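In the design runs reported in the main text, the only information available to the sequence generator was the tokenized backbone. The following block is the verbatim input for one such run; it is reproduced so that readers can re-run the procedure and compare outputs position by position.
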């Protein structure tokens, strides 16, 4: 029997070995890994050590287990980005080397509801421009976007006429987005959004709810963006305070 410390080091070594083989292309995205008994035989360890290594790989989102079938290599996200820097969905797609596009679902001025009045600090009769769009990458649906802008910031009757909402605000309202606060959640079970993104309703969606402020610290845009979690990976740099 291996000691507890040795067992721990073994599973980490096996984990790194499998990761290296995936990086080298020995195992491709969607491919099933050898079974636990086969891996145990290859590495000359117990199945419990193999299970520990596979569990760690699953926690790192490198593999996924399908009950009764096996362990499969997960596809890498198409887009990986830090969230410290603020940029539009259009810029995100362009940075990934793809062609951005837009499919408009809804665009209309409406009287702000109670939640929207609170968000923008609006009066009872004030309106917002509500826009719902599908952002595409190389013509494939990528992000379901809901954008809300106070109507008083825009010229009367002005409608969204371009892909980048940041550029739209700069050109039409002379409003430049300076910063944003972001809340990140995961959710599923939204049939309308899942259908538009061409994914199963059980597929987790990554949701970014963002309040955008201009250089005068005015809240000028509130956005809810639904990303397919298998296409995106967001990260943030964190530093320990002394």
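Verbatim output:
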């Amino acid at each position: 029997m291996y000691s507890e410390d040795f067992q721990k080091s073994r599973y980490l070594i096996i984990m790194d070995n499998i990761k290296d083989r995936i990086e080298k292309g020995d195992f491709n995205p969607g491919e099933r890994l050898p079974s636990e008994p086969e891996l145990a035989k290859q590495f000359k360890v117990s199945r419990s050590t193999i299970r520990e290594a596979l569990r760690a790989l699953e926690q790192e989102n490198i593999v996924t287990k399908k009950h009764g079938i096996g362990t499969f290599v997960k596809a890498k996200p198409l887009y990986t980005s830090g969230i410290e820097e603020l940029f539009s969905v259009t810029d995100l797609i362009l940075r990934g080397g793809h062609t951005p596009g837009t499919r408009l679902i809804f665009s209309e001025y409406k009287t702000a509801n109670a939640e929207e009045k609170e968000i923008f600090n609006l009066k009872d009769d004030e309106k917002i421009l509500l826009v719902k769009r599908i952002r595409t990458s190389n013509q494939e649906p990528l992000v379901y976007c809901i954008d809300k802008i106070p109507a008083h910031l825009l010229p009367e009757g002005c409608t969204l006429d371009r892909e980048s909402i940041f550029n739209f605000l700069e050109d039409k309202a002379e409003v430049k987005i300076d910063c944003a606060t972001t809340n990140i959640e995961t959710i599923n079970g939204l049939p309308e959004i899942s259908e538009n993104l061409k994914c199963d309703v059980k597929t987790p969606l990554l949701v970014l709810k963002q309040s955008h402020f201009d250089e005068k610290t005015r809240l000028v845009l509130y956005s809810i963006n639904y990303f397919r979690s298998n296409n995106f990976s967001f990260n943030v740099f964190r530093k320990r305070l002394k």
